[in-house]
Amino acid sequence: MPHSTPNEDPRLTLWLRVREFAVPPPMIESATARRATGDWAAACAAAHVDVDLDLRRIARLHGQELATHLRTDLRHLAPDLLRWHMPRIAPNGLLRPGLTLSLARYHEGDNTVHLVARTPPAWADAGQRISLALWDGSRSGPHPHPHPNRRFRLDLHRHLWDARRAGELRTRSETAPHARGWAVDRWPAEARLLLRAEGQDGGTVAVRVGGRRQVLVDVDASRAGDRGPAPPPILPDAATWVLPDLALLRAGLIEAGRLHPLVAAALVPGHSPDARPRGRQSENGPRTVECRGARHRIALVNGVLVALDHDASEIRREKLLAELTGTPLPCLQLIEEAHRSPECLLDVHARLEHGDAAGAQATVDGLLGPGAQLPEGALRDALEKAARRRIDHGLFRAGLGPEAGPAKRPEPGLAERPDRRSRKGRARPRHATFR
Fold first, then answer.
1. Euclidean distance between CA atoms 173 and 158, whole angstroms
2. I need a labelling partner for 7 at 20 to 30 A (CA). Which of 13, 100, 183, 328 fits?
3. Whole-angstrom Cα distance, residue 114 to residue 58?
4. CA atoms within 13 A on the CB side of 65
């Protein structure tokens, strides 16, 4: 697992960890295979995406035309690609909790209906699951923030989740490196796309640049006042930063074969979109330990971790002596330590926190053998804690968690907590003009 150093960019370190653990190759393969057969619901299940959609009910409530557009989008949704590009938070790159972001917008008369992706609140984020729903302005359900977030949205970035548009990733992410990873030279073009989506030919767009600071981008200064007193639209976070995969490639920290196949095909010319993403190679060969003046080997035999250089009778005798003296043979000490707190424990922790329970179990099985009985220790604690936290997620999905009840209504047009500081203490936005 990569470890950061003082000279590394912490943002790249975070995204390298995400690329290592958050969307494992088996998930991509399984979701892709199911999507290729037209089974979008099974593809979502493979990518740990819960579907809170009833297409028949949607057709009754919103009309057949909207339902048809929605069904088409779902058939081309690559849920593993969506997970790949979802907003994440430091320090471990977990999904940004309690988020509702728009994937697509459908117009129903004067009303706009959103296909949204949601992440659970932090207390229920075990499994790192995502859910899909249709939002029409209602506030029912257990989610604390049902309203689509103005800053985190992908309806203007379909190439980040729609397999038909994935090839656009290169042109939408081409940018020169800038300090702190800002995609500054993409802002004017992205601002125009945002303003057109808001029904404007020009005007001002706000860009969040950390904390409560923002830059105002005028793509046409003569029209900057058209909105009157209304706050300017916020440039989507996906357009604010240099694409993480592009930054990792430029820094030489990742190879194309470790990227999502659709991402690699777009960013690396000649790379096949059908190529399997490569994870790190496991090291399941014999391990050695200094034991009684010799180098002895420890390895899996018939799915059990054993000391190869001691016969069965010697092992039984040494175990009995260890119970009497408390000092086991060095080979037995290594096996015991591997069961309690193995050298792969950091990997197991990372996979569990990113929701890859199957990958975590496979790592344990590869080291200790399938069905190994774990004694008390850090490894068993980690697995049991992950299992308990998955219960919390189930309670959240059932509306039975600590935040059960009707969600609080956000302020109109806002999706973030209001600034409680006085105006005197707020930093004024900087202003930049692009023509």
1. 13
2. 183
3. 12
4. 5
The pTM of the full predicted model, rounded to 2 decimals, is: 0.80
Which is it for the CA torsion 334, 338, 339, 342, positive or negative?
A: positive
> CA 403: distance to chain centroid?
23
Alpha carbon distance 81, 44 (integer Å): 11
Structural domain spans, the chain: 1-175+262-280, 287-384
- Residue type for position 251: A
Taking residues 60-67, report their average pLDDT. 94
Please state, in angstroms and as integers, the Cα–Cα distance from residue 145 to each residue in 95, 139, 231, following that order: 15, 9, 20
pLDDT digits (tens, 9 = 90+) for 285-311: 577 778 877 888 877 676 677 777 777
Q: Which residues pair with 203 in a beta bridge?
A: none
How far is the C-alpha of 226 from the C-alpha of 343, rounded, in Å?
Answer: 61
Q: Three-state DSSP class for 165?
A: helix
Q: What's the Cα-to-Cα distance from 45 to each of 39, 40, 68, 366, rounded to whole Å?
A: 10, 9, 22, 25
Task: Tell me the percentage of the chain whose pLDDT exceeds 90.
Answer: 54
Dump the DSSP string for 196-224: HHTT-SS-EEEEE-STT-EEEEESSGGGT
Strands of 81-140 (E only): list them: 88-89, 94-95, 100-108, 111-118, 130-135
More confident residue, 288 or 72: 72
- Show the tokens assigned to 261: 């196949």
> By the 8 A CB rule, do 17 and 92 touch?
yes
- Residue 375 contacts residue 42 (beta carbons within 8 Å): no
Q: What is d(CA 247, CA 84) in angstroms, rounded to the nearest whole number?
A: 15
Cis peptide leading into residue 6 (ω within 30°): no
pLDDT of residue 22: 96
Which pair of structure tokens corresponds to residue 382?
């980690």
- Strand, helix or coil for residue 342: coil
Could you give the CA distance from residue 353 to residue 11 in angstroms, rounded to a whole number? Answer: 19
Q: SS3 letters for 242-287?
A: CCHHHHHHHCCCCCHHHCCHHHHHHHCCCCCCCCCCCCCCCCCCCE
Side-chain half-sphere exposure of 91, counting CA atoms within 13 A? 2
| AA identity, residue 189 | A
Tokens of 108: 């129903």
pLDDT digits (tens, 9 = 90+) for 369-398: 777 777 777 888 888 999 999 999 999 999
Across the range 76-91, mean pLDDT stands at 97
